[in-house]
Amino acid sequence: xxxxxxxxxxxxxxxxxxxxxxxxxxxxxxxxxxxxxxxxxxxxxxxxxxxxxxxxxxxxxxxxxxxxxxxxxxxxxxxxxxxxxxxxxxxxxxxxxxxxxxxxxxxxxxxxxxxxxxxxxxxxxxxxxxxxxx
Amino acid sequence: xxxxxxxxxxxxxxxxxxxxxxxxxxxxxxxxxxxxxxxxxxxxxxxxxxxxxxxxxxxxxxxxxxxxxxxxxxxxxxxxxxxxxxxxxxxxxxxxxxxxxxxxxxxxxxxxxxxxxxxxxxxxxxxxxxxxxxxxxxx
Lengths: 134, 139
Hints:
The structure holds two protein chains of two kinds. Chain A is of the alpha/beta class. Chain A contains four helices and six strands. Chain A is 40% helix and 21% strand. Chain A has a six-stranded mixed β-sheet, with helices on one face. Chain A is elongated. The relative contact order of chain A is 0.17. In chain B, a hairpin with a 5-residue loop joins strand 3 and strand 4 (74-76). The longest helix of chain B is centred in the N-terminal third of the chain and has 36 residues, at 2-37. Chain B has a six-stranded mixed β-sheet with strand order 2-7-6-3-4-5, covered by helices on one side. Chain B has helices at 2-37, 83-95, 112-124; strands at residues 39-44, 49-51, 64-68, 74-76, 79-81, 101-106, 129-136. The radius of gyration of chain B is 27 Å and the shape is elongated. At the A-B interface, helix 2, strand 5, helix 4 and strand 6 of A face helix 1, strand 1 and helix 3 of B. Strand 6 (122-129) of chain A pairs antiparallel with strand 1 of chain B, so a sheet runs across the interface.
């Protein structure tokens, strides 16, 4: 009788669900928080800052292709138009330039100049954390 | 039969303990590995156009102009320097500056990685502001 009265919580399924949630969070969070769906080998640096806020990304691939928020954009003028539209909605939006480290500096500088002309006030060059192996 | 059932229930608690350990290990692994996945960024002042070989305007606080040449040479305020001496000289220049601004310009064939490396070095030695300028070659 006493055994029936004692509540017996089966915590095992809950723990399993918790574990699965942790695994899903581990896999999804890098994709959600950063614009890293387009694979670009960004340069490594010691002194990068991490900003988690409203931002747009402009990707410059090694072949010179431009992507705005992971969508291919034909020309630099189109990049400027997309940045201008983003700046119109939020004047303090952060423009993250993710360029391949094998690009020429002037290619990236063109993107910087375009973003500036489009009204971007805050521009950041994406880098990855420099490890001891680099 | 009932007793056996109760014992099995009690044993379930041990499995939960190990699961908690695994979950904690996963969380710690998650925390450690996250910085490797995330990208950082170096804030860059919006570019303008600098006249090649042009003097710094009078009254400007800019003290450190770094030029990266195609052949790998580095010019600090138009004086060729090695990378090691740049690391020594740059903080001295920045100490005299109020804004602690470093202006970087480069030749056409210089790779982006090289520019970021110098920017990173400038930030490491205490630059508050890094500006990347386009160099306009004199006609």
